[in-house]
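Take a look at the protein record below and flag anything odd:
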Amino acid sequence: MNYFGEIAALLTAVFWTVTSMAFESAGKKVGSLSVNLIRLIIAFGIYAIYTQITRGMWFPFDAGTERWLWLALSGIVGFLIGDLLLFQAFVVIGARVSMLVMAMTPPFTAFISYFVLDEVLSAMNWVGMVVTLTGISMVILKRGNKSIVGEEKIRRKLSSAYPVYGVLLALGGALGQASGLVLSKKGMGDYDAFAASQIRVFTGLIGFTILVIFMKRYRRLWSAVTDLSAMKRIGLGSFFGPFLGVAFSLLSIQHTKAGVAATIMAIVPVMIIPPAILIFKEKVNTKEVVGAFITVAGVGIFFL
């Protein structure tokens, strides 16, 4: 049996693990907006070189109007809106927790597919969703003791272990990625995955350029470009993220079911824990580790 799609999805998870950590570090130094624009510029250049060598054209001139429209929309939703939210989440709550929340991408994908591709949720899908949400709740919620003035007993209340704003940003990133995946699958067909990815990168690049101009972030952008340490991290993340990661994610949905691909790509929260401990010296408790595994298990159930 041919497992090309599954292998591509697994490699995507590896690539996204590297890029999420690289962009978290760079984003904290120069800001998420600068990171987003620069990484798409770098990725577009890499795509141009790669497709010139492999296809004989540096730009997807042969895509056709309808394919361009769907993939461009996917680029705007996935790169501009989704990634902007996700990258800011990296800065607010960190890459590990952000990517755990991003495990909601498969359930979101199913909901959107219901309206766009007429896919219907089964009873097992609902079970998978409950398990996934349980795992995520274990990581983003903690239970603490709070004294209530005027009362003798101490009430236990659920409170967020991380800023709610950061969690919402990550959820927005998950929704953007899910929408982008569905739109990509609808528009790509059997077209070259790298050329299709280049269209998404190109539209995302235009969107972020407009955003930088509108917000007048020229000085911060220049500061980021002249920061050698940050540029090394952005360059590394650009190669593994918007180039290899995005292209291989499209390859995976071309050669296997979207649900299977999304499930395998959702193992990033588990893969990111060891380097988070070793490189960033983050403290990870048992509850967070268990929550990460439950989340991924829930995603697996969702697409059984």
Observations:
- The radius of gyration is 20 Å.
